[in-house]
Write a structure and sequence with these properties.
By secondary structure, the protein is mainly beta. The protein has 8 helices and 25 strands.
Amino acid sequence: MKSAIVWVFGGIMFPAELVPFLKKGTKLGLMVQFAFMMKANAAADFGPAALLPKGRYQAVVRFGDVSHIQQKYSSSGELQGPERMNKRFSNEFLRKIPDAKRLIHLMNSQNPRKAEGDALDMGELMVQGKAKVDYIAPQLARGMTSKWTLGMAIPVVNYKSDVTTANGGVNNAAELLNEYADDRNLGLISEGIKPALVKAVKQGPSQATSVIMNSSDYHYREISPRNEQFMGDVIVGSVYQIYTSPKWDLYLTNELTLPTGPKQDPDDLLSLPIFGKTALKNTLYNNFPVNYWLTFGLGLSYTWNIPDQMTKRVPRYDGDFLPPDSTKENLDRDPGDSVGFQLASIFKLTDYFDLGAGYEMEFRGKDRYSGGKGTSRYDLLENNTGQEAQYVKLKLTYSTVTSYFNGTSKIPYQVTYAFADMVGGVNIERQFTNELLLKFYF
């Protein structure tokens, strides 16, 4: 359910029809597709880098949605659905939960010969449903000098989820506890066992999990449908031209992510873990204009995910999927840095339509945790946090830029539809992204 959606600045493309005009020194100097994105690799829009002429602006309104985030690529690269989070409530597993362990011992003590507690098996907790993120991101960029462009994006995110839990398998708790007409006959209070938990155990893993989560010892937010809106992480980005020639251009793009979005909530199992972070991404981007109709782009990036502090529930043992409230610690986190590789090609179909295709890869190192009590199982927090991802992308753009220069259009603008699909990965939620971008130049 934790989806990987981070907002960054990037994916900039210079419309090919502007190249001859700008290289001839036209005073009009119209704009580029200067874009801010959701995580450069996860975003749908893409394209070679370029600059805005000095003093000129580009305004963009970006609409998008990210779906399929309930699926995840495992540590072996296998694509799994929500069922990966199902939990078998076997007798062995129940003994790891303090309240359930006390109940098992109490059942055995009531009738040592039958040892009914050793036979307790609740079946399976099943996770089902879907999650989706919609967003709108107003963006503004300005050419500060002839070689430097600066901009900002402020995303607004709508997070929707209908994820719920259900019971699966066979639960024999009702049968084993049926002979006790009143839960108090088990001596629950004297053993520190809540009668409400015993009642829920009879009903199944979903009800028992809900009681445990809502208890004072655990204090989790209930797993229920969500429809939440909030501001994401603001991005400040820039593009600097290092070198230019008729055959190739070289740019340095910088993207500073500011932690304006909500941090992950340790009390919410469905909280998105990808906002409220600080990062600096640097990309060297090469443009290779073949001719008026075709342009290629190649990018190499490095992202410094800046260390921060956060509150986490630290698992007590491997498989501890509900650490109690007492395990919360304020920890120092060093997120793994990322390296990326981007390929893009833009083919001009007509003076009005462009078709683009792209392929991108990204690798991120594992998280590191320290501080807190110093004696907890921080290694369990770090397990399977390193990520890999591969994306394929396509887009179609309608542009009036050429007709504007020809005098047949009064307003230069572009409309782009783009999509990106994550086709492979490791330890990362799958993302299928659709975007619609409206771009105006002035």
